[in-house]
Amino acid sequence: MTYNSDYEDETLDLETDLEILREDLIGELRAINQYQEHIDTLEDEEAIHVLEHIRDDEKEHVAQLTKLIQRLDPLQAEMFRKEGL
Fold first, then answer.
1. What angle do CA 7, 13, 14 make, to 5 degrees?
2. From CA 81, how far away is CA 22, in angstroms rounded?
3. How many helices (H) and strands (E) does the chain have?
4. pLDDT tens-digit profile of 3-19?
5. Predicted structure pTM score
6. CA angle 60, 73, 30 (to 5 degrees)
7. What is the per-residue pLDDT across 25-71, written as a single tens digit (0 to 9) for each?
8. pLDDT at position 40, please?
9. What backbone phi and psi angles, to 5 degrees, belong to 5?
10. How much is the pLDDT for 59?
11. Can you state the percent helix, strand and coil of the chain, rounding each to 5?
12. Which residues contact 33 (CB under 8 A, 6 or more apart)?
């Protein structure tokens, strides 16, 4: 029989949450790159405008996820502070 303290359970839950959020961040960054590639290829101005708007929304999502990760991961927050971010 193994025993996990509440602290250990909370730490595992936090690590799982951070892993999920980092995967989401990766997805948003990939989406930005994909939209930009499409923007660079398209000729229709309306399509370009729509994709630019969507790409910019994804950039906002990156900022929101980064802020959340920093709040949940003090070490990550310190690394950002060290880099002046």
1. 90
2. 18
3. 3, 0
4. 566 656 677 899 999 99
5. 0.82
6. 35
7. 999 999 999 999 999 999 999 999 999 999 999 999 999 999 999 99
8. 98
9. -75, 165
10. 98
11. 85, 0, 15
12. none
